[in-house]
Design a protein that fits this description.
- By secondary structure, this protein is α/β, with parallel strands linked by helices.
- It has one domain: TIM Barrel (Alpha-Beta Barrel).
- It has helices at residues 20-30, 36-56, 74-77, 117-126, 141-145, 160-180, 192-195, 199-207, 215-226, 259-264, 310-320, 348-366, and strands at 61-62, 81-94, 97-111, 132-138, 185-190, 235-240, 270-274, 294-300, 329-333.
Length: 367
């Protein structure tokens, strides 16, 4: 049965490959060759083209592809008051290489203000009159996970409990503002929970003074505070990710260590879950999902252009159905195609073929 509310039977995480002309325009803006207004006009046209393509292949949830961002999380987080970014100097270690990214520091008390991405959503909604405009933002945990205590000024926050509180409240204002702007479909991109399933990551956290056994509860409380001001009718989903940059990854391990907190303490409506490789373990944790929540199976990979066979996807949906009702399931890629503007190692044609395949399989499985 087709779903009338998000997440949809055929869905996607959000980010999409940037066309070459858009990447060139962003580089020209960085070099000072064009103005911010000129870049915005180019972004506007590219997003309108992207909306038409999503609509044409039958997707019901439409995003802006994160075309106005360099990174899925940094562009949002650096706009919170009290948070400062600094030039790339940090290397994030992926399996297969490294990524140079901006760093973030919490220098003062965190507040939301009027977040510029509210306007990004308003543009999207204006140009999606007959489908559902979907907005994606990073989970609040993303501001803490990478740097921990060392990224939070002790002068601003002698106590980390106060930091967690203020971050949750700042997010609450942004989520409330999205609702006031008419958002009905909001996704929080949450990499921290899956990273907490990886033994190497857990050891890293211990070495810097964090307790990986306590962080799921801390992060769940922040997320719940963030979405506590949600408008009536808005659907909140969590996207779980183990790292996605130029088709590389960071973490491995099944969801079992965090599944109970994730499904039964976090007050989200649904979960986009990575299951495109055996790095994510089996479907057994789905037995813990409450009957009133949905899970979007990320069994189509965004990391390569090889197109999945329909029968293989249907077989994996059946496997998941051993632990959760089929009616609670939907289908999507395991992650976005471009968590950063560089994008994953596949072509735009391969990207669209995968999204069409998702729509086709969803129609054959659920009608």
């Amino acid at each position: 049965m087709r779903r009338a509310t998000p997440p949809f039977r055929a869905d996607h995480v959000g980010s999409l490959l940037r066309p070459q002309h858009l990447r060139e325009a962003r580089a020209r803006r960085d070099a000072g060759e064009i103005s911010a207004l000129q870049l915005k006009e180019i972004e506007d046209r590219a997003i309108q083209d992207l909306i038409a393509k999503q609509d044409a292949i039958g997707l019901d949830g439409i995003t802006d592809g994160e075309f106005r961002r360099a990174f899925f999380h940094l562009d949002f987080l650096e706009q919170l008051q009290g948070v400062e970014s600094y030039p790339a100097g940090q290397s994030v270690q992926f399996k297969g290489g490294t990524a140079k990214v901006k760093g973030l520091k919490v220098k003062a008390k965190i507040q939301a203000g009027v977040h510029p991405m509210i306007e990004h959503f308003k543009f999207l909604k204006t140009h999606v009159p007959n489908k559902v405009a979907k907005m994606t933002i990073p989970s609040p945990s993303m501001l803490h996970y990478r740097g921990g205590r060392s990224a939070v000024s002790p002068n601003a926050y002698p106590s980390m409990e106060e930091f967690y509180h203020d971050l949750g409240q700042a997010y609450k204002k942004v989520v409330t503002d999205f609702g006031a702007a008419g958002c009905q479909y909001l996704q929080l991109d949450e990499a921290s929970f899956p990273y907490l399933c990886d033994n190497e990551q857990r050891e890293m956290l211990r070495s810097r003074g964090d307790d990986p056994a306590k962080l799921p509860g801390i992060y769940a409380d922040m997320i719940n505070a963030a979405i506590s001001g949600r408008a009536p009718g808005i659907r909140i989903t969590l996207h779980l990710c183990r790292g996605n940059f130029r088709s590389m990854w960071i973490a491995a391990g099944g969801y079992e260590p965090v599944a109970d907190v994730l499904f039964n303490k976090v007050h989200s409506d649904a979960y986009f879950m990575e299951w495109d490789t055996d790095r994510a373990g089996g479907f057994e944790p789905l037995r813990l999902v409450p009957k009133n929540k949905q899970v979007v199976l990320g069994i189509v990979t965004s990391k390569s252009g090889a197109l999945e066979e329909k029968d293989d996807l249907k077989r994996r949906i059946d496997e998941a159905g051993r632990f959760i009702d089929l009616d609670q399931l939907c289908l999507s890629p395991q992650c976005g195609f471009a968590s950063s503007e560089e994008g994953n190692l596949l072509t735009e044609d391969e990207q669209w073929a995968k999204l069409r395949r998702i729509v086709e399989v969803a129609e054959e499985v659920w009608g």
